[in-house]
């Protein structure tokens, strides 16, 4: 059976599976059978689930498969146990960064406000032995701001440079892997070069924060709590690895659901704690979001920024026009009777394939597309909304959407922490360090030949 998310004929699944079934793979037994038992050992036997086409035979190499499976609770507990031993020379500083789309999941699960849920989660993680817990919304602000600038540059260069437009968002690792491994050159030059929030957070923790704390990046074990399993693949990218320190920007990705599994098994009351500040000073206050009414938000921010920068128009409200379905919508800007900007949001692989087909036919009407692999967006990541039988928990998702909409708004442009970091960390908003720390490149990749043999 050919994967419904793949356009390559050679992408054949080994066994037919139901459309709603996810890939379930037991954590690898690369740890010794004689491994020392610990208080965390009984919590480490969970399964890893991989979603969509990204775990099919022509999308993941055998080596990648092994390394993805190593990003699980057992690896997390291995580091925690290492820190409990006497030889402090081998100890790691554990830092956890929580994605903005994961916090509504914990709030919905706990039936708490987003701020109280954050405090409970932070307190629990620190009770396990985590040293720092960060909100990665600041990294999302960086990613949005850099994407805004890049779109305006591409728009102004569209008549001089090939592949300037359309521009596709780069925040979703499922979309990026699909574009690089399956779609190739017709698509990859159009992908925005701004790093995803996850990888910008990795740079912040392993570079800026490490220097603030006078630590080697290799001494920090950085964990991301994310809504989807595809983030595990993203953490393995070679461009997010620093050879001189033998260190990835992100060492381990755990989904929101995997964290809940740990919490449910631990069943201990813990003291609440506030999220830490990257600057090592006062604790941050209430959780804020950056004005996104949709689950990723690049479309709205770039649209408003481009309208002001390119046409001196202030856009307050945005009206979406639904096309074939609720996960494929568009907005446009008209000036003097002419449409000067047309953006779209394409969520889910069926909508992505329709979008790519239009691009290949040369009938592409959009200047920018916010592309996300998950139908419904990041809140609907399979790492937090999928039930044990593989079906989406619609009631939980509705509650998450309600919680997310209630988060107080702070626009990225007004985030004083971001502006401070541009100066202290990157030597200004237009310095060479900005390109190095906040941008990367995406290109076509040959499908792997040493495919991982996954049991479906």
UniProtKB/TrEMBL annotation:
<protein>
    <recommendedName>
        <fullName>Nuclear prelamin A recognition factor</fullName>
    </recommendedName>
</protein>
<comment type="similarity">
    <text>Belongs to the NARF family.</text>
</comment>
<dbReference type="GO" id="GO:0005638">
    <property type="term" value="C:lamin filament"/>
</dbReference>
<dbReference type="InterPro" id="IPR003149">
    <property type="entry name" value="Fe_hydrogenase_ssu"/>
</dbReference>
<dbReference type="InterPro" id="IPR050340">
    <property type="entry name" value="Cytosolic_Fe-S_CAF"/>
</dbReference>
<comment type="subunit">
    <text>Interacts with LMNA and binds to the farnesylated C-terminal domain.</text>
</comment>
<dbReference type="InterPro" id="IPR009016">
    <property type="entry name" value="Fe_hydrogenase"/>
</dbReference>
<dbReference type="Pfam" id="PF02906">
    <property type="entry name" value="Fe_hyd_lg_C"/>
</dbReference>
<dbReference type="Pfam" id="PF02256">
    <property type="entry name" value="Fe_hyd_SSU"/>
</dbReference>
<dbReference type="InterPro" id="IPR004108">
    <property type="entry name" value="Fe_hydrogenase_lsu_C"/>
</dbReference>
<keyword id="KW-0539">Nucleus</keyword>
<keyword id="KW-0597">Phosphoprotein</keyword>
<feature type="domain" description="Iron hydrogenase small subunit">
    <location>
        <begin position="390"/>
        <end position="446"/>
    </location>
</feature>
<dbReference type="GO" id="GO:0005654">
    <property type="term" value="C:nucleoplasm"/>
</dbReference>
<dbReference type="GO" id="GO:0005730">
    <property type="term" value="C:nucleolus"/>
</dbReference>
<dbReference type="GO" id="GO:0005521">
    <property type="term" value="F:lamin binding"/>
</dbReference>
């Amino acid at each position: 059976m050919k994967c419904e998310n793949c356009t390559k004929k050679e992408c054949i699944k080994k066994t037919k599976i139901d459309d709603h079934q996810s890939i379930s793979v037991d954590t690898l037994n690369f740890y010794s059978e004689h491994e020392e038992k610990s208080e965390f050992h009984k919590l480490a036997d969970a399964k890893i689930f991989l979603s969509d086409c990204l775990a099919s035979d022509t999308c993941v190499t055998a080596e990648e498969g092994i390394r993805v499976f190593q990003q699980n609770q057992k690896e997390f507990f291995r580091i925690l146990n290492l820190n409990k031993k006497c030889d402090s020379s081998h100890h790691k500083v554990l830092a956890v960064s929580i994605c903005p789309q994961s916090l509504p999941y914990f709030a919905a699960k706990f039936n708490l406000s987003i701020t109280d849920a954050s405090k409970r989660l932070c307190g629990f993680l620190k009770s396990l032995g985590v040293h720092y817990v960060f909100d990665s919304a600041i990294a999302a602000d960086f990613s949005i701001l850099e994407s805004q600038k890049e779109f305006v540059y591409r728009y102004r260069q569209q008549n001089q440079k090939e592949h300037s437009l359309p521009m596709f968002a780069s925040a979703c690792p499922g979309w990026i892997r699909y574009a690089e491994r399956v779609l190739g050159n017709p698509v990859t030059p159009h992908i925005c070069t701004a790093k995803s929030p996850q990888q910008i957070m990795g740079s912040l923790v392993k570079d800026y924060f490490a220097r603030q704390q006078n630590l080697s990046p290799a001494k920090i074990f950085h964990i991301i709590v994310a809504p989807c399993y595809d983030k595990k693949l993203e953490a393995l990218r070679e461009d997010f690895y620093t050879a001189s320190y033998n260190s990835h920007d992100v060492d381990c990705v755990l989904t929101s659901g995997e964290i809940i599994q740990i919490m449910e098994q631990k069943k201990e009351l813990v003291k609440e704690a506030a999220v830490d500040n990257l600057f090592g000073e006062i604790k941050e206050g209430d959780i804020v979001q950056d004005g996104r009414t949709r689950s990723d938000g690049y479309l709205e921010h770039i649209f408003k920024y481009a309208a002001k920068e390119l046409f001196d128009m202030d856009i307050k409200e945005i009206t979406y026009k639904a096309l074939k379905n609720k996960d494929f919508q568009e907005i446009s800007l008209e000036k003097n009777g002419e449409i000067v900007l047309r953006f779209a949001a394409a969520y889910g692989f069926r909508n992505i394939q329709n979008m790519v087909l239009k691009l290949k036919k040369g009938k592409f009407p959009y200047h920018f597309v916010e592309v996300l692999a998950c139908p419904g967006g990041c809140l609907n990541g399979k790492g937090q909304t999928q039930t044990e039988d593989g079906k989406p928990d619609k009631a939980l998702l509705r509650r998450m959407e309600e919680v997310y909409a209630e988060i107080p708004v702070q626009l990225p442009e007004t985030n004083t922490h971001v502006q401070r970091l541009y100066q202290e960390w990157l030597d200004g908003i237009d310095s060479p360090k900005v390109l190095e720390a906040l941008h990367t490149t995406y290109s076509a990749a040959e499908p792997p030949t040493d495919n991982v043999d996954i049991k479906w």
